Request: fold
Amino acid sequence: MLVGVKTRLTELIENAPWREAVTCRDTWPHEYVLSEKDDQRELLAAICARFHAGEGVSGRFFRSRRKFLGSGLMRLLAK
Reply:
């Protein structure tokens, strides 16, 4: 992606109604979006499309294996 070029995914992330997590606030502060309750299905679909395109890196979150997006999109999973 070119530096300074906004993608539709970037716009969706910036405009999403992020909620501050109450649990794990002291040990792992983060924000999240509720895709259905907040009507963010387009955001979820865009993220899934990136994963299906082969983007993301495998990693661990505690004991579970997860796939994470980079390129400034880590806010999707942690802040």
In short: The helical segments are 8-15, 41-52. Residues 41-52 form the longest helix (12 residues). The first strand starts at residue 19 and ends at 20.
